[in-house]
Amino acid sequence: MFQHKNGIGGGFSSRYRTRRLVWFEIHENPLTAILREKQLKAGSRMRKLRLIESTNPGWQDLTPGH
User: Fold this and answer.
1) What global pTM score does this model have?
2) How far apart are CA 2 and CA 19, in angstroms?
3) Nearest to 52 by CA among 2, 60, 34, 18
4) Angle at CA of residue 46, ends 42 and 47, nearest 5°
5) For a designed S-S bond to 7, which of 14, 26, 48, 63 qualifies (C-beta 3.0 to 4.6 A apart)?
6) CA distances (Å), 33 to each of 2, 19, 29, 64, 66, in order?
7) What is the pLDDT of residues 13-60, one digit of tens each?
C-alpha cells in the first residue's frame, strides 16, 4: 500500500498516478484472485464503474488508516 500511495515501483500506480483504493476483494488463495482479476479486466469500463459505485458511491479512499 505504501508503494502505491507514493508512486514507488514504476508500475501501473506510478504510471497513472492512482493513489486511492476505492474497491477491493479478498480471496482465499492466489489462483482465485488471479482468475477474478482476469474476469474484471475483460469487462467494460462501465461495468467496473458500477461495481465500485455499488459499494463505494462516494469513491472514498479505503486504505487502512486513511
Assistant:
1) 0.74
2) 10
3) 60
4) 55
5) 14
6) 21, 21, 7, 20, 24
7) 778 778 889 999 999 999 999 999 999 999 999 999 999 999 999 999
- The single-letter code of the amino acid at 2 is F
Q: What is the DSSP string of 12-51?
A: HHHHHT----------SSHHHHHHHHHHHHHS-HHHHHHH
| Cell numbers given for 35 | 482468475
Residues whose CB is less than 8 angstroms from the CB of residue 55 and which lie 6 or more positions away in sequence, other chains included: 23
d(CA 52, CA 44): 13
Cell of 42: 475483460
